[in-house]
Every structure is written in structure tokens, then in C-alpha cells.
Amino acid sequence: MWERFVQDSERDIRTSQAPKEPSARARMVTERLRQQEARGELPQGWRTDPVGQGASGRQARRRKMWTIIGIPLALAVAVVAMKPSLLPGDLFGTDSGTGTSTGTGVGTGPLPAETAPETAAPASAPGTPTLDEPFAGSPAARYADGAAGIVLPEAKAVGAFSKAQVAQALEQTRALLVDANLDRGTLLGATPETVLDKVLDPKQPELVDDLRSRLRKPGKDDDPLRLFSRFDANEVRLVGDVVKTRGRTTFEAGADGAVDIHVDYTFVYALAPADPDSTEVARTIVRRVIDLQMADPAKVQVTPGRLAIIRYDDDVANSACEVYDGFLHPRLSSADPTGAPPSGPTVDPYDRSRDIGDDSENQQCGTVSRT
In a 10 Å sphere around its CB, with 0-12 CB exposed, 13-18 middle and 19+ buried, how is residue 354 labelled? Predict the structure, then answer.
């Protein structure tokens, strides 16, 4: 069809410009007009025919112009027909759903950063987790990878602190979240030294010493999992290098010129049995809500640049109930159940629109609707 279009266009141009042999009648009329012109019987300028000849010239030029424009236009139409995605937007409805989404519906692209509380649980996602794609079938597949999911708000001066000091407090908050929930050493049982030595205020009564004691000798009333994510390397191994992260950080002016920082984050861990030949994949979901404070050293006896923990809550999905050895124990189909069976209500661990409760350490271990 393209070749026919080009051939027809070239033929029209040749036809419009090629000379034609006049008919016998045309020759007789031409001769009569020439004789009348010689005798002076025709007005001057009769040959110019400003309307007829000018119109014919314009028609020829118009045909030539449309031929010049038509060829590249037809070529562009052919290219777009073969690949509609070259057009901006989605004029023909060809979007496959790989873009981002700001809602909780089904999608495959990464979610935008969470800037406000979510209003509903995310929709179900198709797929089955594998060693190559451990987050398949989970809303976490659209979460950010690791620390990229900890998006800090823009700092501004608050209370007794300058913009730069508030920015420092927010960075300290990020360091706490990373070291406690994302650092590979911490996840495999190491002590989160950044949290204990560089972030938390040693002048906060007994907090740092108490956390170190919990890590050394965990128990029901001394559970380090309330603040740290840790797994037993003799039982499970981490699948890949990614922990999926979603949440938000906010801050406001506190009492006596302090900066109060609130964090609410969900961390999703992909795990497999420690046996290197096993292909089973399980996921454990941990949500942490923590209130931190940077107090004014002029009014409170604190360490400048350090944070105090005011409140912390946690919600763990797919881990053994009533086991207090300092490690999370994901339920594996290839292993015997560990701990007591779930006794609490069924909850969706990906529903970030729900409140995870108060600071009680005796929350019931519930059944999860999905992992």
C-alpha cells in the first residue's frame, strides 16, 4: 500500500505538468483568436487570465505541497501504528499497567512515597514467591527497597532548634530505622551498635543499658524484638539482599522547645530455610510505630544531637507465638510449628490504615490473612 501511494503521487505530479497535444477544435479556436488579435479586435491582457491560469497554478502547487507533506505524514502514521507507545499518554488504551499508582489498587510499578495515612488495605497481588522473586504475590513487591523507603520530610526550624538541627534529628531517625530493621548484621543476630552508640541518648534513664541486656539475655519481659528485627541464622537464611520498606516520618514542635518525631514503617523480610538446597520462601512482616524526641539541652539534661525514645509499638506477622529467644521465627511448611498457635483475631499485615494498638507487651498473637 505504501508503494502504491508513492507511485500514485508521482503519477499525479507528472500528469499535472506533462504537455498535451491540442485537439483540432482547439487549434481552430487558437488560430481565430490569433487573427483577431492581429487586427486589434481583442483587448490587451486577454492572455493573462488572472483567475483561470492563477487558479491552475495554485492547484498544481497545492498538489505538490500535499505530496511533500503526505509522504512523511504517512510514514509517521505507519510507525505509530506499529508502536503506539511512542505517543504521549495512552491515547489508544494500550497501557499494560506497569506504571505507578497512588492508590491501593492492583498495579505492578513502584508505589509513590507514603505522605499520609493510607485509607484501606492494598488489593491482592497475583503470584507465588520464589527464590528469584521472593515478594511475588505480595503488596510488598511495590514497596521501596530498603532505606530508599525511608523518605524524610523537609526539615524546618522547630522550637529551640534550627533547620539544620532538625535535619540532623531526622537523619538520626533514619539511622535508627536502618540499623534496627535493615542492617544485615542486625538481621542475622549482631548487636545494632549504631542505634546504641550513636543515636540513642545515653542519659535517657536505663534505656541503652536495658536494650543491651535484652540482646544478651532475652526473655518474655525483656524482648529485644520490640525494637529490633533479628533472625536465627541456624534456622533461616535471608533471600536476596532486599528488605521491602514502606512508611512515613513526621515531626512537630514538642513541649519545652523539643522536636517530636513520629515514625510508622512496615518492613517485609523474605526468608528461606537454612538448608541451602531448599527452595521454600516465606515472608515475615514487621510494623513499627515509634515516637522519638530531641530535647532542648538548655532545659533538659540530655546529650546534644541524640534522641530519646518516648514510645514504641510493634506488630509482627508470620512469626512463632510465645517464643522469647530474641529471634523472629517465620512459619515454614517444611518445618514443625514453633511456639503456641495463634490465638488473636485475623489481621491483614499489609493494612497500614489500621492502628496497631498501644504499648502493651502482652498483645495476643493473631492469625494473618496473608504474608
Answer: middle
Tell me how long the chain is.
371
Neighbour count for residue 202 (Cβ, 10 Å): 12
The pLDDT tens digits of the residues spanning 47-95 come to 544 444 554 555 656 666 655 666 656 666 565 555 544 454 444 433 3
User: pTM to 2 decimals?
Assistant: 0.72
Q: Can you give the residue ranges of every domain in the chain?
A: 2-86, 139-368
Per-residue pLDDT of 154-193, as tens digits, reads 999 999 999 999 999 999 999 999 999 999 999 999 999 9
State the amino acid at position 41 in one-letter form. E
Name the pLDDT band for 288 (thresholds 50, 70, 90): very high
Q: How far is CA 371 from the centre of its chain?
A: 20
**3-state secondary structure string across the chain:** CHHHHHHHHHHHHHHHHCCCCCCHHHHHHHHHHHHHHHCCCCCCCCCCCCCHHHHHHHHHHHHHHHHHHHHHHHHHHHHHHHCHHHCCCCCCCCCCCCCCCCCCCCCCCCCCCCCCCCCCCCCCCCCCCCCCCCCCCCHHHHCEEHHHHCCCCCCCCECCECHHHHHHHHHHHHHHHHHHHCCHHHHCCCCCHHHHHHHECCCCCCHHHHHHHHHHCCECCECHHHCCCCECCCCEEECCCCCEEEEEEEEEECHHHCEEEEEEEEEEEEEEECCCCCCCCEEEEEEEEEEEEECCCCCCCCCCCCEEEEEEEEEEECCCECCCCCCECCCCCCCCCCCECCCEEEECCCCCCCCCCCCCCCCCCEEECCC
Cell numbers 498535451 correspond to what residue?
Answer: 20
**Contact predicate 164/265, CB 8 Å:** no
Non-local CB neighbours of 319 within 8 Å, separated by 6+ positions:
284, 328, 329, 330, 331
Ramachandran area for residue 40 (φ above 0: left; ψ -120 to 50: alpha; else beta): left
